[in-house]
Amino acid sequence: EEAVQSYRTLVKRYRTTQEAGYARVNLAQYYLNLLDKIEGDQRLIDEAKSQLILFTQQFTSHAMLSEAKRRLKQIYNIEAERLYLLAVFYNRKETPHYRPAASKRYLYKLLINYGDSDFINQAKQLLSTLDPEYQGEFKRFKEEQDRKIEATKIVLPPEATNKSLRKILIKQGDSDKFLLPVKDLDLTPIENTKEDKKKLEGKKDDQK
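Given the sequence above, the corresponding structure tokens read:
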């Protein structure tokens, strides 16, 4: 646990360092070691995948890059296998759970999200037995998924991708000036205004 806490501290405080890269891969391995592949907690897979994706996005050259990619493929295979087994489960005609439509949906998701997994050929083969003409329905399913993803995309302001559009802020300590004049911010203390000074003086006289 101490080692895991050290890894978490590294990726939080020193995320751009090479050491943080090692920590991310080690954290992912830790989560995967806790995972029982089929019955395991999905949160462990999500945590491991998150660390590895962040690693591959951050480092184009690192001693652990090939290991990170290998572990990431392992996770994709775990997720693809789960979808495939669910498709098989709902395709058992002799059970009350027989739902061929549900089986196809799981297989479609496998084809869309895990096209490079080791289960792609098995998924296509099972789909062919469920519906030899599945290609048309699969195309419509994919288009619908793409529309849903597009609808949930976060639109970033132009400043997020174009540095030239960003406003330059004065850093603390670089200047003794405010970003805006104090008067424009209406920060003048009440007791410093002429009108309120008179009111305060009047109150003092009344108290005497």
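The two ends are 69 Å apart (CA to CA). Try to locate this feature in the token string yourself.
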